[in-house]
Amino acid sequence: MTFSKIIGVGSYLPKNLLTNKDLEESLDTTDEWITSRTGIKQRHIVSKNEATSDLALEASLKAISASGIDKNDIDLIIVATTTPDKVFPSTACILQAKLKINECPAFDIQAVCSGFIYALSIADNFIKTNSAKKILVVGADSMSKITDYKDRSNAILWGDGAGAVILSASDNLGILSTHIHSDGKFENLLHVPKKNDPSLIDTIEMQGSQVFKMAVNTLDKIVDETLLANNLHKKDIDWLVPHQANIRILEATARKLDMDMSKVIVTIDRHGNTSAASIPLALDQGVKENKIKPGNLILMEAFGGGFTWGSALIRF
Ligand code: COA
After folding, report:
1. What is the pTM of this model?
2. What is the mean pLDDT of residues 253-270?
3. How far is CA 259 from the centre of its chain?
4. Active site residue 113
């Protein structure tokens, strides 16, 4: 049987920092409120001339280097993003050109904060069906470009960044299962409404507390679904690598898994919510900090606009 194995991880964060103290200057908020309600202390923000594909490029180069493969062996590129450089071509095609890789298929997928899990799930199916052998899977977002910095309930959350993995066909266990879902009827709780005015930028609108409750309940269910599908128990999981939306959501999922927070990779304090980038960013952090090691069983999970949600169980 062929498995999809992660053989390289990389990530990139833009240089500019936006701290809670900075936000105190422009918004009716405090560092204390933001920290206690979200766990966020700072976020990285792209500069004016930086595009999502630039973040994706840096993360991809690091993942390719960590994997030790020749970039020309990549036979599929998938980029999960909600903030593409342009309507078209896809950010994956722009990334492909920047990487100077010719002719392999490249496409974007859009599932907001669940995007990386969706991309991983698609990539896993390409490998299992022998349609690809080496896949570059990227989560990259410049959420600052669609954030209204006058809306205090929203502006405090988002950050920019990218993370990437190289997925390779392998005889050894890798991705055990992926689980993806969506429910479009909740569109208006978390979305970017069309202003239909070319002079205005369309920005995120969110019913925060309703999204919060839905996220906690849904992630509870996806944990059960994933363990059941693999006939595994909570205690079998070595690391939780969650989408970083709010420290209180992370804590609720850890409680559900009877897991100590020391077994959860947490980056929300330094990165904020980087949407599709947050899981591969956290994975890279966990690997760099020498926490996640080969052979560990890791559970990734995410919830986001759509609503979309999903999980991946991986023998690293
Ligand atoms: N600073 C100070 N006060 C703020 C504030 C800020 N940045 N943002 C909101 N408030 C105020 C509200 O105006 C409200 O005041 P009121 O009681 O006088 O009306 C009060 O704080 C509580 O607002 P509420 O929205 O109920 O806060 P909350 O505890 O739900 O926290 C979020 C708000 C956004 C942090 C929280 O709901 C959240 O994280 N939701 C999930 C968001 C998410 O994960 N989205 C992405 C999914 S991938």
Report:
1. 0.97
2. 96
3. 21
4. yes
Distance separating alpha carbons of residues 136 and 7, to the nearest angstrom: 10
Catalytic site residue from 20, 44, 93, 243:
243
For residue 171, what are the contacts with CB-CB under 8 A and spacing of at least 6?
1, 2, 3
The mean pLDDT value for 213-231 works out to 96
Do the bridges between strand 76-80 and strand 106-109 make them parallel or antiparallel, or are there none, so unpaired? parallel
Helix (H) or strand (E) run with residue 111 in it:
none
Provide the pLDDT for residue 218.
96
The response to whether residue 33 sits with its C-beta less than 6 Å from ligand 1 reads yes
Nearest to 308 by CA among 80, 153, 154, 95: 80
Q: What does the DSSP 8-state code read for residue 263?
A: G
Residue 304 near ligand 1, beta carbon < 6 Å: yes
CA distance 83 to 286: 25
211 ligand 1 Cβ < 6 A? yes
